[in-house]
Amino acid sequence: MSIQQAQGGSLMSRLPVTPRAVLGGLLVGMIAANVWPLLLYKLGAPVAAMIELVFLGLYVCWFTGVAPGAWKAQRTDLGRGGKLSRAQWGWGLLAAVCFAATVHSAIILVFRFVPFPAAAFHKGYDLAFIPTLPLRWLACVVSALSAGVCEEMGFRGYIQRPIEKRHGPVIA
Hints:
Elements: H1 3-7, H2 11-14, H3 17-33, H4 35-43, H5 45-63, H6 72-78, H7 86-113, H8 118-122, H9 133-167
């Protein structure tokens, strides 16, 4: 008998659902989202974009349970595999528009109340290492896609879903 069996399971299985969901979701979402910058800086925009798009396809297939393997049913549930209803699409799009409006409004207000030099805002966002404007646009689009897919999978799927099942959708 192993020490873990004698103690009643692994450390993760003994954690309450919320810390376990947060830890798992951060691992699923943030580690994958950080693959893209590494590829971009090491390989350049065109090659990195192709590799990242393949990676994202495989990532989505695995974490939504499309790909066969261990824990398929659990991955399908946590990755929210399945089709969305019209109502879910409508509410999701409304939430996205409200979120975007809120963030943009907050940015405008912050920069009106807090003096912040434009040069300092742009520091760290220099894309000069990417040689052409079309490749810079490609890098921006793939960055947005990578962040959106990986973060939503981690946060809405692997963090929110277990908390929803335990405490209900309002609390989650």
